Amino acid sequence: GNSLANGQGLANVIAIIKDQYKKYKQIGIVVSARGEATVELQHLIDTAKSGLDYTPALTTFKKYQIEPLQTIDFTEEFQLLSDTLKGVQLTKDYSPKIQDLILAQGELLSSKILSALLNQEGLKSKTIDSREFLKTDSNFGNANVDQQASASHTKTVFKSVGKTTLTIIPGFIASNEKDETTTLGRNGSNYTASLLANYLDASEILNYTHVNGIYTANPEIVANAKVIRQINYTEASELASFGASILHTKTIVPLIDKKIPFRILNTFKPEEEGTLISDEKTQSAIKSISIQDDVDLLNISGKGLLGKSGIDARIFSVLGRDGISAGIISQGSSERGVSFIIKKVDADKALVALKNEFKHEITVNDIHSIKLIRNIAVVTIVGQKVNDFSNSLNYLKKNKIDIHLINSTVSANNIGLVVDKDDVKKAVNIIHSQIFGAVKTM
Ligand code: ASP
Ligand code: MG
Question: Exposed (0-12), middle (13-18) or buried (19+): which is 55, by Cβ within 10 Å?
Fold first, then answer.
């Protein structure tokens, strides 16, 4: 998204495409929505739902979108936005299906304008709408790809375009069996790219973004964070699922069986080496610290939980039924409480569902509280063995950082810590200097 922002981003992208096309002759470009388009579209639909006037924001949005090429014809997309938003405003509500249709316009606008700009530069390109070949279920907002159908449609569609045609493909969007628009989840464009790479046997994916690669920690938080040069598929998957927002959690999977290398590069600093994700074994275990702050901690406690069987099963089946997934699940050995984290967007729903399920236990005081702790963040240290983590824990304690929960997995070397949101920067810096060496400067 940032790479395609108005100004330098877009200019660099066009230069990069020219270069790569000259070099490889057979390339497909998967694009994300430009700038903050997805967030802005989400904001527009929420404003419309609340019944407020969304039109000034819509005007600003449209102005931004046409800025690089005033002559472009966006009538169809803009009309769809106006009509749909009006409907949302009237009914003061929207379905996930409508939400996907609105959000999808970001990528549709983006692919259309990029294609037009390239044509203007004398580089003939063809836009192919991903909804024609990526098929998903109807889980709007986070749709699951039907691999078989998608693979076969993709092969057919791309065969008819010819190998040397420069193709522009909107990322993030797909369609269900009724041809309704679906989306693959936030940051889903790179997932689109890796699916295509798999179906079309691509030799490589170059993922251009606005940072130098995957870091040992967020460089905005940790001053001496370093770019990780090379990382394997398993490690990258771990990082993706623990909040490295550069990658969609599902991006790595399609790369594995065909061993397709995935390189993260910086649009704004083409000289940077970036991060290579590949099948190659890395010499030393990769360590990286990530933060998730879009989660809440849910805590259930009560003496009645002691020794009672079936409670845990009920907790997780209630959540499962509502499609809510829990992480960092933890339980004291005395079984007086169960805690876990859930996505913020699911928190209220989970609370209501659990209170409802355990109505009886609450009445007889077997459960005395089910509550959400909202101001928390999860710090995950990927590639960290539990045994080697005690120093960090000591330092966290010395710095009076409360740890609500700690969890580690047997299969992968990851440690998850739940801390107060206000402490998270400090915590990450402490852990980073423990693992990678302290900075000498203050
Ligand atoms: N535009 C979508 C988003 O912002 C997909 C992407 O950027 O990859 O989440
Ligand atoms: Mg984006």
Answer: middle
